[in-house]
What does this fold into?
Amino acid sequence: MTSNVKTVNVALCGAGIVGGGVCQIIKERQEVFKTLGIQFNIKTILVRNVSKKRDFELPAGAKLTDNVEDIFSDDSIDLIVEVMGGLGAAKTVVFGGLKAKKSVVTANKALISYHLNEIEELVNTFSKDGSRFAFEAAVGGGIPVIKSLQRDIIGADDVMQVSGILNGTTNYMLTKMDQTGCSYEAALKEAQDLGFAEADPTADVEGHDARSKISLLCRLTLGVWIKDEDISCTGISTLTADDFEYAKILRSKIKLLGICKKVNNGTGAEIYVSPVIVPISNTISSTNGATNIVEVRSKYLGTTYYVGAGAGRFPTATSIVGDMLEISLNKSPKPFPLKQNLTQHTDYPGRFYIRINIRDATGIIRTVGAICENEGVSIHSVLQIPITDKQNVPFVITTDETLASKVKVVVDSLEKQPWCLKRPVALPFL
Amino acid sequence: MTSNVKTVNVALCGAGIVGGGVCQIIKERQEVFKTLGIQFNIKTILVRNVSKKRDFELPAGAKLTDNVEDIFSDDSIDLIVEVMGGLGAAKTVVFGGLKAKKSVVTANKALISYHLNEIEELVNTFSKDGSRFAFEAAVGGGIPVIKSLQRDIIGADDVMQVSGILNGTTNYMLTKMDQTGCSYEAALKEAQDLGFAEADPTADVEGHDARSKISLLCRLTLGVWIKDEDISCTGISTLTADDFEYAKILRSKIKLLGICKKVNNGTGAEIYVSPVIVPISNTISSTNGATNIVEVRSKYLGTTYYVGAGAGRFPTATSIVGDMLEISLNKSPKPFPLKQNLTQHTDYPGRFYIRINIRDATGIIRTVGAICENEGVSIHSVLQIPITDKQNVPFVITTDETLASKVKVVVDSLEKQPWCLKRPVALPFL
It folds into this structure.
């Protein structure tokens, strides 16, 4: 078998957590790759600082450089692996690599979701020359969901909705809040202490990371690209321990989901990121800790789930090495085959949970009822956990089917009431 | 885009539930396929009885035949889809098709698991000429787990264990028994009335269907083929309502699983089918009804799950059409790349649940304790739900880590006791 082993020269851009994982997997599995007909030679490693000490053994013979031109100008390099992250140098690497007619593998969801159109044009242009672009690690870390969607589902089937826990940090925090009753602040501190959350946690807790990923999944499954800034995005920082107590009463869990779906008989697309009330009967509700899950609802297949580690050195690196193998074995599909002319609907229908923090007084229920009635929002139930502090009573209404826009007007009105202590929190039901 | 559309001539063998689904999906999605560069023409349909009425509209222009030679001798046919099932005519179709250098797609897990070696040889011989063999629908119906394993996981990663709910009929029955407390017989009758279970339910309830599937998954992931008849297989027909009551006490569910795993530092393989006590913290436990789930534990990726409909016209047909697309777009990987020299271990370690039905008497616990002690099996706990009938008391012991072979000796000894009403039921913990 090893007589026809092709050597694939690789430039690794980034030598951090994921880059180290890629090096280690390649080292440990090279003999298996040879039985498949290839071997990887990590020829060049692009880093910011060539003298910085790494937490892994650099591959034998690899040349460290801080100059990306060393890669673009090296004709022997077939494949670029971008694991630097961010929108700066990573963009230079990905765009420059494709233009230099090299195949590119990246884990960079932010880069792809921000520059999807440009990347797609580059890929369409240069794939004619055999170069390929793959990004399995960009969504769901180690879960091979991108390839399942691209290759197994969107051809044979018509995807109606994709919903997922796409950010492990926030899912870790929400699981903690659910299981211990702790505050948002305590859950964040613990996630930071454990290294799950960054010092500046904004990208995670405000849902921006999940937003990039659902944007990408929406492009892949519904065939329409909606820019990050056009996606309604609510994070988890306004959630309190009370919300988890109410969720239990509703036999549900609270999960930060990215959701995209076809609406209006397949002419429109809805997309948003929000904490969502998920009934415990749905597999999403029992996906805990840093685990990610993607639920795909499609016409013929029905509902499928893909569950696994959403981040981490080896899970992410496995996806990258999988992409490297597929490209090198010349089996990578052309990306983005699906294009559909769907109109984005910024509004969306659903049932909603609204938590209102009030100073206890008379007439509040009547006023809440009147505000909802004015907007045509029908109240499904009123929930009240035992009151412990009359100066700050969290109570919840759930609505019948209505529109997110109407709920926003209701929340705006409620916020203006003298007894309303802070802006009410509205969450859709799944 | 449509200027370069290649027509792929297809012979559909079998025009039942799944065959009808394949025809309908192709009809409805032909325009999408054209944008990918191909269209399917179902030219010939092989059936037993050409005059039988079908429950779906036959494709325009398709010729019905009961003679398989019409397919083998037709050089214009590129692709054979086998959805007849069984080991008779289906074998003729699959083997003959590969020998006639046509690509073959099948959903037939029994055929593949019984004839894996011969099929593999045929595929290796004829894939050189470009013909391909695919069988996504053979395991987990609509879940694209075979391709994820073959393409995304076994190259880049080292699979340690695969466990799955691989049979929807029995999972439907177990879910019913768990949720309603009904008997095995009542659950079977309901499944039969609903058309989930056959008049002769043996293949499902005795685990033979799940066994074919885990045999196949074992071959794919561990690289070793273990014949169906060499796989330890326990079905669900000895389970009673009591077992589900005891499972609740153990904060677990009972699921019929096929399990294969690497043991002895990667030199051995263990494989069995059995009802298993699954803790409610594992996603497998909440997979209910006819849904299938496959859990994959691998070295780098950790634990991933693939969940979806395990059977049914459209889920199964989606997998078949996905295979047809992939083969026609010339992207299908060569199957079975992984071969490992693992020794089968027919014994396996684990913790066990043993339910013993007794006629109440004194000295029973002492005798049970002595039997376990003689065999070196350590008892972890003794469980007793309230006794309603002193003539038939089900009680349960759980063991500490031991070997299946020792548990079997314990069960044999217990069965011989005068107070033991029937053979005790032993189930491993996941």
